[in-house]
Design goal:
The protein has one domain: Api92-like domains (Alpha-Beta Plaits). About 25% of the residues lie in helices and about 35% in strands. The longest helix has 12 residues.
């Protein structure tokens, strides 16, 4: 099992909705280049947050984000009308559960999310995306496409 998962997350949809999503990320930090994912859109309840690293904290995080830490730093990569991409580093796997929940929120229900992910060892550059191991497409709270890429050596 690898330690980290680097995800390139592309949000696409109506320009106004993608702008709102981008502004949500900006509100979480003073540094416009880096944002936090999990705590922005699906924050842990205060009673869980105060139990950092406890069994309840871990179970809530896994159940609501789909990975151990979904509040890894996200770096904006591409911005154009109706499309924004972020690179997000999480433990073990992409935050699929959290992204599915995000697309069920009324304000974000008409966006599509594509996640290209790469499993990494702990010594890799946190934002250096090499070759995806797979990708997912999420819409209306459902994974509608899930592809594992087989990198066979020739």
């Amino acid at each position: 099992m690898t330690d980290w998962c680097l995800s390139q997350i592309e949000f696409s949809g109506p320009v106004s909705v993608i702008s709102q999503l981008t502004e949500g990320f900006k509100r979480t930090t003073n540094d416009a280049e880096y944002q936090l994912f999990g705590q922005t859109f699906l924050p842990r309840p205060q009673e869980i947050e105060t139990q950092s690293r406890s069994a309840a904290w871990y179970e809530w995080t896994k159940e609501n984000w789909g990975c151990k830490y979904a509040n890894g730093l996200a770096q904006s990569e591409v911005r154009q009308p109706g499309l924004v991409k972020y690179i997000l580093k999480t433990d073990w796997n992409p935050p699929v559960v959290g992204l599915c929940k995000l697309t069920t929120m009324p304000e974000y229900s008409n966006i599509t999310v594509r996640v290209d992910y790469e499993m990494q060892a702990d010594f890799c550059d946190p934002f250096e995306f090499h070759q995806p191991d797979g990708y997912l497409v999420i819409r209306h709270g459902e994974v509608i496409e899930d592809v594992l890429i087989n990198h066979q050596k020739v």
